[in-house]
Amino acid sequence: MRRLLIAVSLLLLTIGLWADEPAVWPFISGQAFHILPQTHNHESGYFSLCEGLDGKLFVGTAKYGVNSYLVELDPATGKQRIVIDTHKLCGYTGTGFAAQAKIHTRNFVAPSGKIYVGTKQGYPEGDENPNSYPGGFLMSYDPRTDTAQSYGMVPYHGYGVIDVAADESRGLIYYVACQDDDHRDHLWGVYDTRKKQYRLLGPHTTLYGSTLLDKQGRAYVITSDYKLACYNPDGDQLTIRDILLDGKPFDPAPGVIIHQRLTNWVMSPDGNSAYLLMLTNPTLYRITLAGGGKSTTAADLGKMLATEKSTSAYSLVMHPDGNVYSLLVTPDPAGKAKGTLNVLVRYEPGTKTMRTLGALAIRNKDYFDFTPQPDGTPKPWSNGVETLADGTLAPTAVNQGLIAGRDGTLYALLISPFAVLKIDDYRVPTPVATPAQLWLDASLATCDRTEKQLPEITRIAEEVAKRYEAGGRLDVILNSNNGWPGQGPQAELTGRSGGIIDLGARYVPDGELAGRTPEQIRNDVIIIGWQRAPTPGDVERIKLYQGRGAKILGFGPKGLPTLAECEKLCDYWIDTGLGADDRVLTLDDGLRAGHGNSLANLINGWTFTAEFIGALTRHGKMPPMWKAMLYQNDWEPWYLKYGGKVRFHEDLYVPPLAQGELGTRFLNQIRWHLRKFENTQLGEVQKAAGIIADEHAKGKKTVVTVAGHCMFDTVGQYEDAAWAQEVSFHGWVPYETRAYLAQAPRDSLVLVLSYCGFSKGAWGAMMGNGQKRILLVTSENDAKEFPEFDGPKDECLAIIDMGHAYGDACTRIDGYPLLVFPPSGIMQAVAYGAVDVEVQAKIKAADQPKP
Q1: How far apart, in whole angstroms, are the C-alpha atoms of residue 404 and residue 400?
Q2: Residue 50: left (phi > 0), alpha (psi -120 to 50), or beta?
Q3: What's the CA angle centered on 808, arms 733 and 72, to 5 degrees?
Q4: Alpha-carbon span 315 to 141, nearest angstrom
Q5: For residues 199 and 231, is the Cβ–Cβ distance under 8 A?
Q6: How many Å apart are CA 89 and CA 87, to the nearest integer?
Q7: Kind and range of the H or E run holding 829
Q8: In the predicted model, is pLDDT for residue 15 greater than 50?
């Protein structure tokens, strides 16, 4: 790429200003974010830029001779952090030309939220061995769990990875690998994540070729001789078709040498065609992907900038407004800039119009310290911007990429200095927030309230941890029948993936006291919680435990009159912050909706658990945590080794966690899940709510089947009782199946609150009772690991994805082999709440008198 930039610069120097007098372009100002300086050493990176499903950006860096990194950037706050340290992740130690010096791939964002990238070599310096680079790595970062994965090195010595695209449903990662000293030799291949095998697909791609995936899972590349290659994984079939432009073989860069024949293309919204732009040719082409036969067609859409004197880097993007945007590099027609300008252009398919929008400028000039060195010379690698006579700070180096966020915000990747430029001018109009979106915003606000309480939660957790270390138990109060608690977070905290094994619903008044000293019993801490009026007998049970010396930790809303006596009795209290009325939404028509206490208790409960563990680690201790039962092969051996046998690990060391560190980490993981849900699932929520509202209009209730530990005490307890009938149902539990069959009328509409996938047993039971109309709330499943949960989801009327990863737990603890703390209960509450507020709004609207 360094050689390519030199070639481009030489090309531009030979152009000069054209004879015509083009209009002076306005400047389009954006906010620049300088990428973490420790992650690069030449102030550069190469088109490795994407927006994650939660709205954060991910940038690949180049640190020549040393390493490469993937950096997460929050464009709302400017905060950055490293999420992939390539050498550390891959266990690699090469330096100099042997280093994994660049993440050079276009970052691929999969539906799961995973970010897929690859590494590439730098450039040999001096007498370095040009054969010392062994090959690039495929990698991914999963924001759901804040973990990264290496898929190993491509098996072609000297080849770096220049492109990556993942088809997660089939377990395939497509890649393009190339040698830096041979721009013609670009290998197209696929890695099978299930078989852990690399293989080549056959054709070589064009320079820095990239793979496009259509909705059917077919993969496309442009070959080195400008033909269209298509691989269909379902039939393991490769086809190569000629591309014809006006009946002649397609060549978008006639006469241009191989080192400048960069090709960039993007998929159209319908997936039937792709837009293509060359480095040295500002002409935009549309390539037809759909159809069969021996050939397909290209269409010349015209020049994106009305001059021959311009070039493009990797800055072609499909915008949410349906238009195609690009940045073209050209000399300043007004002569104000000594260097080139990066000009934003747009093609509007609806009117077949090209528009020149303006040249980029940087609004916040202090994004980089441009103070000269002591000898008065500029800082190295800082000459890619220029201050014009009128004070405008313009990027004049060739941009290295452009993307569009889901809201239409444009992000350009700049070099010298290495930065992301945020451009707000082309954001799409913000639609009126729906009730579900307002509910998601309120859910995010719940995380913020919990974070503000973190010092108090940490204080309580430290006191509880001291009692636990002294031999006390951390347990929960059961209901009057020694069964699941009637409400609160305590059931959710017991027996869950990534929860504390030793925290279980087993501390009953007359049991398990034998063998414990009075001192140990007096150090017990018992959890109880509420989201509404207390369950009968709660006061008496609290007093019974306190009579034995135990402390009581309460969760719930302060200020709820019916909880006053319980609140007074508790030794510790973690507040929901919602007071006597926990409805968090007031909609435009005055409707109050969205009860928030249950969700707040769940978030507070797991945040307390995080800080409790953090306190223990500061004393050199780590309690054994549950491994998900989804992992059939080894969850039971794990439990048999630790469950009920040890209170603390003696076989591993967890470094001390600072106060608030693990709680904050957990809250950030929940925020990711909430933002991803808001950005991707509201359409399915609307669909499900519309079906439920139609059912209600017919005088019928929707059966809500509840799997898990928390929603059984929430569904049907509030205004949702007008449309919801709760039934606990796991599909593989015989007595629950019998209860379901007895309670669910034939041909019921059923909303299924699941965890991972959809149980075949549950589907069979529903079909046996005549239910064929299923609305499914679920998340990722692994049919190979747990085939029971690979049910026929395609037959459901709507599928709402909660977004958590297989195995459920989402938070890492350095030094611990398992992820901890499950988001699924929280996301069940979020998903159900989103559906509920939408249904209530639709019912209210339907009840309004017609004008």
Answers
A1: 14
A2: beta
A3: 165
A4: 23
A5: no
A6: 6
A7: helix 824-847
A8: no
Q: Which two tokens stand for residue 702?
A: 């929707």
**Contact assessment for residue 30 and residue 412, using Cβ atoms and an 8 Å cutoff:** yes
Burial class (CB in 10 A: 0-12, 13-18, 19+), 441: middle
Q: Distance of CA 566 to CAs 487, 543, 546, 572, Å?
A: 14, 10, 12, 11
Please check whether residue 264 is in contact with residue 252, taking contact to mean a CB–CB distance below 8 angstroms.
no
Calculate Rg over the CA atoms of the chain: 30
Confidence of residue 11 (pLDDT cuts 50, 70, 90): very low
Q: Which residue has the tokens 């730098």?
A: 122
The number of helices, as runs of H, and strands, as runs of E, in the chain is 14, 43
Query: Is residue 735 helix, strand or coil?
Result: helix
The dihedral through the CA atoms of 353, 354, 358, 364 has a sign that is: positive
The whole-number pLDDT of residue 742 equals: 81
Which pair of tokens denotes residue 296? 């397909």
Q: Which runs of E-coded beta strand occur in 52-98?
A: 57-60, 69-73, 80-85
In angstroms, the CA 679 to CA 549 distance is 49
End-to-end, the C-alpha distance of the chain in Å comes to 66
Q: How many CA atoms lie within 13 A of 499 on its CB side?
A: 26
Place of tokens 């799961």: 112
Among residues 797, 796, 579, the alpha carbon closest in space to that of 687 is found at: 797
Q: Where are the alpha helices (DSSP H) in 618-681?
A: 635-642, 661-680
Residue with tokens 């791939």: 105
**From CA 702, how far away is CA 694, in angstroms rounded?**
10
3-state secondary structure of 373: coil
With left for phi above 0 and alpha for psi between -120 and 50, is residue 375 left, alpha or beta? alpha
CA distance 32 to 12: 25
Instruction: Please spell the DSSP secondary structure of 449-507, one letter per residue.
Output: HHHHTHHHHHHHHHHHHHHHHTT--EEE---TTSSS-SSSSTTTTSS-TTSBTT--TT-
Neighbours of 166 (CB within 10 A): 26
How far apart are alpha carbons 353 and 346 in whole angstroms? 8
If we measure between CA atoms, which residue out of 516, 529, 623 comes closest to residue 575? Answer: 529
Task: Render pLDDT for 412-426 as a digit per residue (tens, 0 to 9).
Answer: 999 999 999 999 999
- Residue 6 scores a pLDDT above 70: no
Q: What is the pLDDT of residue 334?
A: 82
Q: Which residue has the higher pLDDT, 736 or 370?
A: 370
Q: Are strands 147-153 and 137-142 parallel, antiparallel or unpaired?
A: antiparallel
Tell me which residue of 44, 179, 49, 35 sits closest to 105, measured CA to CA.
49
The answer to whether the CB of 728 falls within 8 A of the CB of 739 is yes
From residue 639, give the alpha-carbon distance in Å to each of 475, 505, 645. Answer: 18, 16, 9
Identify whether the C-beta of residue 417 lies closer than 8 Å to the C-beta of residue 385. Answer: yes
> What domains are there in the chain, each with its CATH number?
35-204 (2.130.10.10), 435-847 (3.40.50.10490)
Please provide the DSSP assignment of 696-723 as one string: HHTT-PEEEEE-SSSGGGTTTSSGGGGT
Return the SS3 of 295. Answer: strand
**Pairwise CA distance, residues 260 & 248, whole Å:** 22
Nearest alpha carbon to residue 86 among 189, 178, 2, 161: 161
**Can you tell me whether residue 811 is helix, strand or coil?**
strand
**Which three-class secondary structure string do you get for 564-613?**
HHHHHHCCEEEECCCCCCCEEEECCCCCEEEECHHHHHHHHHHHHHHHHH
Q: What is the largest CA-CA distance in the chain?
A: 97
- Relative orientation angle of helices 824-847 and 661-680, to the nearest 10 degrees: 40
Tell me the C-alpha distance between 449 and 453, whole Å: 6
